[in-house]
Specification:
CATH class of the largest domain in chain B: Alpha Beta
CATH topology of chain A: OB fold (Dihydrolipoamide Acetyltransferase, E2P)
Strand content of chain A: 35-45%
CATH superfamily of the largest domain in chain B: Histidine kinase-like ATPase, C-terminal domain
Distance between the termini of chain B: 30 Å
Helix content of chain B: 40-55%
Radius of gyration of chain B: 33 Å
Shape of chain B: globular
CATH architecture of chain A: Beta Barrel
Helix content of chain A: under 10%
CATH topology of the largest domain in chain B: Heat Shock Protein 90
Radius of gyration of chain A: 17 Å
Number of strands of chain A: 12
Oligomer: heterodimer
Number of domains of chain B: 5
Number of strands of chain B: 22
Largest sheet of chain A: 7 strands, mixed
Number of helices of chain A: 3
Number of helices of chain B: 24
Chain lengths: 167, 738
């Protein structure tokens, strides 16, 4: 399996759709891809955290990747999927609009994130070209709250909450 | 996956640490017992010394395997010292005891160093090693005594050095020596011997037992057992209570009589008895470990040479540890969690089964089938419940695990402070969830330290107050329904509520008016307030306080309560009430707008119909009079910014939550039912969210959040207090967790 992932310098990526754009993450970081079940909202959590979901007896914290990286919101539909990751004993899921395919990139296909200009985002890894298409390569770990070098600028009720009784 | 690769060595490492710390804990526990027996004038208990020796010996082997050089070096020196001690070569003095206690502490530190938690205490280890060596040089010689007794030289010849030492010290102490002769069938020799040992133990000490090979019976074995006892022969006979065992006293030799020359049939007997022994599988004797002294044994090639005595002896120590290992399994608690999860899945299956059964039963054509399926379902449900309680049982450990460590702390702290403290522990066998035990050691440590630090007075002060010089710190635990209660009580100077109030006002924790409204008991519980510290005035205000807010927070996190009662000059008693397990909680499920939440039953007083007409707004905060008392009220829909349900409930309910003495009314829309649920922790991703203790699967694939009542009460009540006091610091507190 590891031979498949690291074939020389090439690496497998999972390609998915967010707000009509193509994104990709390293395949080895994804533990599983599941359908979206009932998600229980966690009050006062960061705005990109949709809530918690049960997956075969395990509790998964689900984030809406669109909100995490601040692209346009869209409703959950039949094509929506949750990418499951296991991070330090915790199960974390990222909601994406649609999972496309696995793509293998050679280093020459990948350009650094700096070509995008703008503010540097810790989760941006670079841009990959596939024919005329452009895919944004991202890292999911820096998006999670409470971890080193994370904290993307996401406003949440939890952060601005100022005590009960306060409107 | 990449991180999986390190699994195996990690596991070995984890096991090493867990086994090593168990051994060190055992060492400490045995030392305390040893100290007690020495203080009571009984002299060191030989069995305890042996246990310590075995433990250190195992630790040496273990650390050698793991390549922990410092650990194995220290163990080696200790082993030598302990060997000298158990063989009576050096006496067990207070100085030696202190060295041993130092060793326990150093072991702990070396282990932490190996884990990378702190630097290796190199200097201290060297100092200790030097002291150990110095003690070993003080070995004293021994007077031969044994020759005065009518014992076969061949018997004497096969005694190990240890057995000889025990024999000698028993005879020196004036005990009588008995020879027991028994014939046991080979098939049951183990159990028969065990039983004999049990019977003899209360009245005497078994020095050794040797197969004599006199009987010539192939299916049975003759044993000669030497027992030292204070009792008369008749009493010993009564204790043994068996016709198969004869008891005779070994008389002192008439010194005028010539010594019996060594028997010439040494060679034959060697072979016979070696064969008679059940090939060392299950050693009949668990004599002390002797594998470091093979030279000694081989110097006496008498009756049943090396195989018969020394080998089983050497194997004896190992045999015991092997046997105990095979009966206990060390389990990573996460594995149990996984099992618990799987069980949760099974109960979902059960739910589905029930639905289908009900459906079948309700249709006329399949009624019978439905009934049968319901029967199956009931059996399934019973088994599930059994499995659940089985897994819970595995998670339970006796509180004694923590209590033992505390005894060491008491010893250390009271020495540091030059106070005399008697530590009384009861209820160590009370069982509680392993996870809770882990979390308990810090709070208990704080409490015990405080009790000695600030509670127990120095001797002159106690004398002046007419109290005995030795103060008492009592630790007691017992189970009460679904809770475990732990009490820490001291007979020290107590907490002066006026001093606490004064301090709290000076520190700006409470206002002057509030201070006036406090009862004396309430005033004492101010020591739990965050920021309340007696650090600079510990002596002046005769109080405790350092770390008490930590105690409260930690205990609240476990879903527990802390209560404190104190009387000036009489003493202080702190009571912790904890849930027995964290894995399963009884909850009340309820609905807020359209969302289901769970409230732990342990944190609630009652649930009643909510009458909004009773609510008053005071100082921007809703309160109502409930059962004659003012109750702060929070509307959960507002607190949780719950999206409105399509249909508004016409009637609302009030759940009265309580933690310690603080109460909070929570307004909800509908009550569902009481049930037991399996708690699952929220991940670190949600660590910034306050107010939820975890989540659970309710069985319909939906996850429901479980309220963290202590944190909600803390938040709602202090938020109101805090607004008055200091807005900025409050904002910081909410922010720091995100």
């Amino acid at each position: 399996m590891s031979a498949l992932i690291h074939d020389g310098e090439r690496s497998d990526h999972l390609v998915f759709l967010l707000a009509g754009e193509l994104y990709a993450v390293a395949l080895e970081s994804i533990h599983e891809i599941v359908k979206v079940g009932p998600i229980t909202r966690v009050p006062r959590a960061r705005a990109d955290i949709l809530g918690v979901m049960g997956v075969r007896g395990r509790l998964v914290t689900v984030l809406d990747l669109r909100r995490s990286i601040q692209v346009q919101d869209a409703p959950i539909d039949a094509r929506s999927r949750v990418l499951l990751l296991q991070v330090e004993e915790e199960d974390v899921g990222f909601l994406v609009e649609e999972v496309r395919e696995v793509e293998r990139f050679t280093p020459s296909q990948i350009e650094p994130a700096s070509v995008l200009g703008g503010i540097e985002r810790p989760y941006l890894r670079g841009v990959a070209r596939r024919g005329p298409e452009m895919l944004v390569l991202i890292d999911l770990l820096p998006i999670l709250p409470g971890r080193e070098g994370s904290a993307p600028n996401v406003g949440g009720q939890g952060l601005s909450f100022s005590g009960p009784g306060a409107p | 996956m990449a991180e999986r690769r390190d699994d195996a060595p990690d596991k070995a490492r984890e096991e090493f640490f867990s086994e090593a710390s168990e051994l060190v804990d055992g060492f400490g526990r045995h030392l305390l017992a040893l100290e007690e027996s020495v203080e009571n004038g009984h002299g060191p208990d030989p069995e305890t010394l042996n246990d310590i020796f075995r433990g250190v010996h195992t630790l040496k082997g273990l650390s050698g395997l793991f390549g922990a050089a410092t650990l194995s070096g220290l163990s080696h020196e200790l082993e030598n010292l302990l060997d000298d001690l158990r063989l009576g070569r050096i006496p067990l003095s207070t100085a030696v005891l202190d060295l041993l206690f130092d060793a326990v502490e150093l072991y702990g530190r070396i282990l932490s160093a190996l884990k990378g938690e702190e630097a290796e205490p190199r200097e201290e280890v060297l100092t200790l090693l030097a002291s150990l060596a110095a003690v070993s040089n003080e070995r004293s010689g021994n007077v031969a005594f044994i020759a005065e007794y009518e014992l076969d030289p061949e018997t004497l010849g096969v005694l190990t050095e240890y057995e000889e030492h025990r024999l000698r010290s028993n005879l020196q102490a004036g005990l009588a020596l008995y020879r027991l002769k028994a014939k046991f069938p080979l098939a049951t020799i183990d159990s028969a011997l065990e039983e004999l040992k049990l019977r003899v133990r209360p009245v005497g000490e078994i020095i050794t037992y040797l197969p004599t090979g006199d009987g010539g019976d192939l299916d049975a074995i003759d044993l000669e057992i030497l027992v030292a006892s204070r009792s008369a022969a008749a009493e010993l006979r009564q204790a043994v209570d068996s016709d198969a065992v004869s008891v005779d006293e070994v008389k002192k030799r008439d010194l005028s009589q010539a010594r019996t020359p060594p028997a010439p049939r040494v060679g034959e007997r060697t072979d016979d008895s070696a064969m008679d022994l059940p090939d060392g599988r299950e050693t009949p004797s668990p004599p002390p470990v002797e594998d470091d002294e093979p030279a000694h044994a081989s110097m006496h090639p008498a009756p049943h040479a090396t195989e018969a005595v020394v080998m089983p002896a050497a194997a004896g120590g190992r045999d015991i540890s092997l046997r105990s290992v095979s009966q206990t399994v060390r389990v990573d608690i996460r594995k149990l969690d996984r099992l618990m999860n799987a069980l949760g899945e099974l109960s979902l299956v059960r739910g589905a089964l029930l639905r289908y059964a009900e459906k079948l039963r309700s249709e006329p054509g399949t009624r019978r089938l439905g009934m049968d399926l319901l029967g199956v379902h009931r059996a399934f449900e019973r088994q599930l419940a059994q499995m659940q309680s089985g897994i819970l049982e595995v998670r339970m450990v006796p509180l004694g695990q923590v209590f033992d460590k505390l005894a060491r702390i008491v010893r250390q702290v009271s020495r540091e402070q030059n106070k005399s403290v008697h530590f009384v522990v009861t209820g160590g066998e009370t069982e509680i969830d392993k996870l809770i035990v882990e979390e308990l050691s810090d709070p208990l440590l704080h409490m015990i330290r405080n009790a000695i630090d600030h509670g127990i007075e120095p001797i002159p002060e106690r004398a002046a107050a007419g109290k005995p010089d030795t103060g008492t710190v009592a630790l007691n635990a017992y189970q009460q329904g679904n809770h475990v209660v732990i009490e820490v009580e001291d007979d020290g100077r107590g907490i002066d509520p006026h001093a606490v109030l004064h301090k709290a006002v000076t520190m700006g924790l409470v206002s002057m008016e509030e201070a006036k409204s406090f009862s004396l008991e309430e005033a004492v519980s101010l020591v739990f307030m965050q920021g309340f510290s007696t650090r600079d005035t510990a002596t002046a205000m005769s109080g405790r306080g350092i770390g008490m807010d930590i105690v409260k927070t930690r205990i609240a996190k476990l879903g527990g309560l802390v209560d404190i009662v104190s009387e000036v000059q009489i003493g202080t008693k702190i009571t912790l009430t904890l849930p027995v397990t964290l894995a399963i909680v009884g909850v009340l499920t309820f609905v807020v707008e359209a969302t289901v939440y769970c409230m732990p039953l342990s944190s609630m007083e009652e649930a009643v119909v909510f009458d909004s007409a009773l609510v008053r707004e005071v100082d921007g905060r809703e309160v109502m009079t409930h059962r004659g008392v003012t109750l702060p009220v929070v509307r959960l829909a507002r607190l949780f910014s719950e999206p409105p349900a399509p249909q508004r409930a016409t009637k609302q309910f009030l759940i009265v939550a309580r933690v310690g003495t603080r109460r909070l009314g929570m307004v909800v829309d509908r009550l569902i039912e009481q049930q037991d649920v399996v708690i699952k922790a929220l991940g670190r991703t949600l660590a910034h969210v306050r107010g939820f203790a975890g989540a659970t699967d309710l069985g319909d694939q939906r996850v429901a959040l479980i309220l963290d009542v202590p944190s909600l009460i803390e938040e709602c009540l202090t938020a109101a207090e805090g607004r008055r006091a200091n807005d900025a610091s409050l904002a910081f507190r909410f922010g720091e967790r995100s």
